[in-house]
Amino acid sequence: MSSLTKILSHDQLDTLELLLNGAFAPVDSYLNQADHLSVLNNKRLANGCVWPLPITLNLSPAEKLTAQITKRITLVDHEQRAVAELKLEELYRLPLS
């Protein structure tokens, strides 16, 4: 099955590593829209757990289009090595500040 290949910046790789090694527990994935909005408005996840930091993976419009079709995103480092694969559950537009 094909997927979108997303090259991660160093900061994005650092965030992914923290997600994968449990440092962001109880958060273990990029936030969905409900959690994201709840964190922005209440500093809590949608389930009520205190969480101050929105964790998202930003995509360009072209990447969003591809991701909607493939439903998978392969995350790669700057040397094109696959470091993770995501199953797309939700795409949403970030609120403007």
UniProtKB/TrEMBL annotation:
UniProt record, GO biological process: sulfate assimilation via adenylyl sulfate reduction; sulfate assimilation, phosphoadenylyl sulfate reduction by phosphoadenylyl-sulfate reductase (thioredoxin)
Pfam families, A to Z: PUA_2
A GO term from the CC aspect: cytoplasm
Single Gene Ontology MF annotation: sulfate adenylyltransferase (ATP) activity
Alphabetized InterPro entries for the sequence: ATP-Sase_PUA-like_dom, PUA-like_sf, Sulf_AdTrans/APS_kinase
Domain ATP-sulfurylase PUA-like: 8-94
Keywords, ordered alphabetically: Transferase
Protein name: PUA-like domain-containing protein
Organism: Thiothrix eikelboomii
